Amino acid sequence: MKVFSTTCTFDYSWDEVSTANWRKYCPWNDKATHVVGVDTVSRTVDPKTGILRTERLITCDQSVPAWLLSLFGGSTTSHVYEVSYVDPISKKVTMCSTNLTWSNVLNVRETVTYSPSSASPTSHTEFTQEAKITALCGGWQKIKNKVEEASVERFRENASRGREGFETVLEMSRRVFGEQRELEKALL
Amino acid sequence: MAASIAPECNDIKEKYDTCFLKWYSEKYLRGNTKSNDCDELFGKYKSCLHKALKDKGIDGMLDDARKSSSETDAEFLKKS
């Protein structure tokens, strides 16, 4: 198993980040073109805790190293299942994702969280990401290692692009919400 | 908003996503967690999507994955 983890702080409040997070993969984000579909399969609010639970199917189309494709089969389209929890009281978003495609040879478990930053909780948000990658293909440890390393490398690339793209979405969201508020004020 | 995996569901998905985002930012985050403004739109979107998932043969692997979410449910659905 290999682990990839990263953290960063966004210069936006938790309310803003947790809202914009729902449209992380929208056309404003030109850095996540490998995500071609985001579908919500189920959504409920726990009546006791107020926790919002959402299940999504995320569909990606991305280039895969040729040697990996020859190992795993021909398609570059892959599906990810994500279940997320928003706790509005403690202000925490937790998103757990796992791969549906190639799941017989590779297990990827990713956990992402967004919480108010401890240093400036009203204006900044802390992001953490951890991915555990395990190659399941039987046989040579050497091949397993190579598969895991290639997957971690892809995670690293997508993570930095992901952050860049999300920054754009945050900026656009703030602008659009601001304009909406102005409009509502003008109409009242 | 991101597209649906099923192009025929894009219109209803867009309507639902817009409704959800408004509800989330204006009601849910302000403590009104029991309101259900978008249920009707979600119902329509879901029925469109379910048919597409079945046709594409994704429903089976999705169901398998959903079974394993009880682990994270136990950890993250509890009261903080």
Automatic annotation (TrEMBL), chain A:
Parts forming coiled coils: none
One annotated Gene Ontology cellular component of this protein: mitochondrial intermembrane space
PROSITE patterns: PRELI_MSF1
Record-annotated PRELI/MSF1 domain positions: 1-178
Domain of life, per lineage: Eukaryota
Name of the protein in its database record: PRELI/MSF1 domain-containing protein
Lineage, uppermost ranks: Eukaryota, Fungi, Dikarya, Ascomycota, Pezizomycotina
From TrEMBL, chain B:
A Pfam family recorded for this sequence: UPF0203
Cellular component terms (Gene Ontology): cytosol; mitochondrial intermembrane space; nucleus
InterPro entries according to UniProt: MDM35_apoptosis (IPR007918)
GO BP field: phospholipid translocation
Keyword Disulfide bond: yes
Family: Belongs to the TRIAP1/MDM35 family.
Protein name: Mitochondrial distribution/morphology family 35/apoptosis
A GO MF label: phosphatidic acid transfer activity
Entry keywords, A to Z: Disulfide bond
Organism: Penicillium angulare
